[in-house]
Amino acid sequence: MPDGQDHVFTDYSNHPLRDLQIDLTICVGHARPRLKDVIGLKDGDILTLDKQTTDLVEVFVGDKLIARGELIETGEEGELGVRITDVLSGSAPF
Question: Which domain holds residue 34?
Answer without folding.
Answer: 12-87
